[in-house]
Design brief:
Helices cover 63% and strands 2% of the residues. By secondary structure, it is mostly helical. Residues 1-12 and 408-427 have low confidence and may be disordered.
């Protein structure tokens, strides 16, 4: 752009200063912001960073991160300004019609090709390419037909793993991309939800047979769909054959070496937490082994969000008779895992832990579970701290009931209570 653009801009048009890149002084085509909050044109700042610089050109502050965050609001303002002035919007904003036509042709190829996998991979490259303008990506979605073409390919090739993996790769890129506007993401998810049975069946096949990356992408799409689903849609999703066992397999214990991708665990737990809201799905989850699987996650994971969601799952399954029986059967592992994460899953996770332990130890009166709970180091302190926090009255009452199961010694002091001063932030 540079000199040619400046010469082609009429002198009568005054360009707002904040539309100009601080480096090139031209109107920004693809504005991105640094961690310092200063916005630059992507090409200019990328050239600066690629030259070995690790400071912000405008402020000269050291950069703790070189991540470039698209400034879509400014991009939209620039485009609006161009449309209302005599400036050539194509020259300024970089809206490449030929690139948009190429992307449109890809959509047509997906709809008509007998082997659409290669074309789908090209579309994935289009959405993942940082050099492609953010508005071109959004324009493709706004034009319509893109998601419908992918859905059609998935339905036609429901037994072709290669096509399904390529389709899901595109959808996952769009759903998680910062370049795609939230309104467009919602539109895409609504389109996908129009045929839930087909979508989830395809996701299950990839979860069952796909690569680790493809399985993660499938779980990411399912999590996004569940997050905006109503109770009826969640019911339909939970009834798709083989979905629940594949999600349980996704969270561990892993391959023959015992290794599992943390992102797979995180997404698998999120999906199971979304499904366990469906009451009639809980007994099936228990039958398929969700209790020991989630207990392993609680034991191994330190992430607060994962812990909170895992404790929510435990609370849900402990609400049904089959779940309480399973908790008792796996008492040594399940009860200990829940008790140890009581203060490490946020406020909601702490309350879920108390409800779960109360269901097993007080409601079921399982002696093995009680023995395990009273033997967990520091659990009494955690219960006392939770009672002193801003938890719900019901949770506070349940925590009090759990404290009563600890033996009282002759001096009327709770056995096992840590008398030394502790400084613990519960949440």
């Amino acid at each position: 752009m540079g000199k040619e653009q400046r010469l082609s801009t009429p002198l009568a048009v005054k360009i707002p200063s904040f539309f100009r890149c601080p480096i090139s002084l031209d109107v920004m085509r693809s504005p991105v912001s640094l961690s310092t909050g200063v916005t630059y044109d992507r090409t200019s700042i990328q050239r600066w960073l690629d030259s070995g610089n690790n400071t912000c050109p405008a402020t000269m502050q050291p950069l703790p991160s070189t991540d470039l965050v698209p400034n879509l609001t400014l991009q939209r303002l620039i485009r609006l300004w161009c449309s209302e002035s005599t400036v050539d919007s194509t020259a300024v904003t970089g809206c490449n019609d030929s690139a948009r036509r190429v992307a449109g042709n890809l959509v047509k190829e997906i709809s008509s090709s007998s082997d659409p996998a290669a074309t789908l991979r090209k579309l994935a490259d289009f959405f993942s390419d940082d050099d492609v303008d953010e508005f071109e990506k959004n324009d493709l979605i706004n034009a319509g037909g893109c998601i419908a073409a992918i859905q059609s390919a998935m339905k036609r090739k429901s037994n072709d793993l290669e096509t399904l993996e390529a389709s899901i790769s595109v959808l996952a890129l769009v759903v998680q991309s910062e370049s795609i506007e939230e309104g467009n993401k919602k539109t895409i998810l609504l389109e996908l939800s129009s045929d839930l049975e087909t979508l989830v069946s395809c996701l299950v096949k990839v979860l069952s047979e796909g690569t680790v990356e493809s399985r993660i992408n499938a779980a990411r799409i399912l999590q996004s769909v569940l997050a905006m689903s109503d109770s009826h849609s969640r019911n339909l999703i939970s009834e798709v054959p083989h979905l629940i066992p594949e999600l349980i397999r996704l969270i561990g214990p892993g391959d023959e070496k015992g290794t599992t991708e943390r992102s797979a665990v995180r997404l698998g737990v999120a999906c199971l937490a979304g499904i366990c809201i469906v009451r009639k799905a809980r007994s099936e989850m228990v039958r398929l082994g969700v209790v020991p699987a989630v207990a392993r996650v609680l034991t191994a994971e330190s992430d607060v969000t994962v812990a909170e969601r895992s404790l929510k799952i435990m609370e849900a399954v402990a609400g049904c008779a089959e779940g309480r029986v399973a908790m008792c059967e796996h008492g040594a592992m399940a009860v200990k895992a829940v008790a140890n994460k009581m203060l490490k899953g946020g406020k909601g996770g702490g309350e879920s832990a108390v409800v779960t332990l109360w269901a097993v130890c007080i409601k079921c009166k399982d002696r093995r579970a009680v023995e395990v709970l009273t033997g967990v180091e520091g659990v009494l302190t955690r219960l006392l701290l939770l009672m002193q926090s801003c938890c719900a009255p019901g949770s506070r009452q349940m925590a009090g009931d759990l404290i009563k199961i600890f033996k009282v010694n002759a001096k009327n002091c709770l056995a096992g209570y840590e008398s030394k001063t502790t400084h613990i932030m519960p949440f």
